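ok, trying the design again with the full structure, not the truncated one.
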């Protein structure tokens, strides 16, 4: 039983909308939880970026899984793992589900592109997977999971690839028939009309399967509008990553050009704040408990060296 996957499933069906933050490592996941998000998106772009490689199926499954696991261990909210195209074909998907579920990840998301995938915002053409092959990937994923609450999210790349609304609807239908627990409809449009047109048509037919959006390019959209259009989850996939990149660049540039770090102190977190974020209080308490206990052992004559 995985309490976090139950929590996520419950939230998806009972809340107006589930707010998810994209994280690239455990620290960004902790900051996301503290900010009030309901779940973590273990971002493929974010994890690739922190490893210094492009978001193009360069890292392998265990590297992505390890990063997601660190996020999971560091937080109390569920982790949804971005699993790109499922790391290969049907047997790779099977192993992926076994491993992610076993390690406590609440949900995985796979996208209907061909391996090796490229980040959806990269120009130069995106190749969609065959609809039947991708549907069988979803089916094997659902057959492989061993707990009821674990979720498999199918991500539609039809709009990203320029294949349009009808293609997206056809694929969403096939993926939900294959067992997908939710549909993530991705878009790189400058406004939300594309995803709204999808949700309107989709809800006419299949009200029960929750819809998810990633409003990166149509960033002016308000959460209230997403709720009105019946989206059940919103993922802010890369804002934390981008914030840390700009902040590091600015601060480090200033140190080099000013020849001192004195002037950046107001812009950066105090070391104490970092200590607090990473559980140093707990570490100290355990140490104090240990020291006290050791004294007791010595005084009472317990243990081997008494
Ligand atoms: C990611 O965060 O890796 C995603 C979302 O897949 S996006 O980069 O918007 O495609
Ligand atoms: Mg990704």
């Amino acid at each position: 039983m995985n309490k976090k996957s139950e929590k996520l499933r419950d939230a998806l069906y009972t809340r107006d909308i589930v707010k998810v933050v994209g994280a690239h490592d455990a620290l960004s996941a902790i900051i996301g939880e503290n900010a009030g998000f309901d779940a973590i998106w273990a971002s493929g772009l974010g994890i690739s970026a922190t490893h210094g490689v492009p978001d193009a199926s360069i890292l392998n499954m265990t590297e992505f899984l390890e990063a997601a696991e660190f996020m999971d261990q560091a937080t109390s909210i569920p982790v949804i793992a971005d699993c790109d195209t499922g790391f290969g074909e049907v047997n790779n998907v099977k192993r992926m589900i076994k491993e992610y579920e076993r390690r406590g990840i609440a949900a995985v998301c796979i996208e209907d592109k061909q391996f090796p995938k490229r980040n959806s915002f990269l120009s130069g053409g995106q190749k969609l997977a065959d609809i039947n092959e991708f549907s069988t990937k979803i089916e094997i994923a659902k057959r492989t999971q061993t707990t009821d609450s674990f979720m498999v999210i199918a991500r539609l790349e039809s709009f990203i690839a320029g294949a349009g609304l009808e293609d997206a609807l056809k694929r969403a239908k096939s993926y939900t028939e294959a067992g997908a627990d939710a549909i993530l409809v991705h878009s790189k449009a400058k406004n939300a009309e594309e995803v709204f047109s999808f949700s309107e048509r989709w809800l006419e037919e299949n009200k029960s399967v929750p819809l998810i959006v990633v409003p990166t390019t149509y960033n002016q959209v308000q959460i209230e509008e997403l709720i009105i259009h019946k989206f059940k989850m919103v993922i802010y996939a890369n804002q934390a990553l981008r914030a840390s990149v700009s902040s590091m660049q600015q601060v480090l540039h200033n140190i080099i050009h000013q020849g001192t770090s004195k002037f950046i102190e107001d812009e950066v977190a105090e070391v104490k704040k970092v200590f607090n974020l990473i559980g140093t209080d707990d570490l100290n308490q355990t140490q104090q408990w240990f020291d006290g206990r050791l004294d007791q052992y010595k005084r009472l004559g317990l243990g081997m060296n008494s």
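Keeping the full-length input from now on. The beta strands are 18-23, 39-42, 79-82, 107-111, 151-156, 182-185, 211-213, 233-236.
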